[in-house]
Amino acid sequence: MSKRVIENWVNLAEYDFETAKAMMNSGRYIYVAFMCQQTIEKISTCAVVVLSHKIQ
Fold this sequence. Notes:
This protein has helices at residues 3-25, 29-55. The longest helix has 27 residues, at 29-55. It starts with a helix and ends with a helix. Helix content is 89%, strand content 0%. The chain has one domain (3-55).
């Protein structure tokens, strides 16, 4: 797994989190929940991929 792929996952998660904050400021709370879920999913996927490659 290349460092570039991992950085891409992290960057996408950060973008989603920034979007969640923008939605919070505008009162669009359903979208806040959705974007936070997306953030957690991307970071979790990244962590699983990194850890599984270290184990092998």
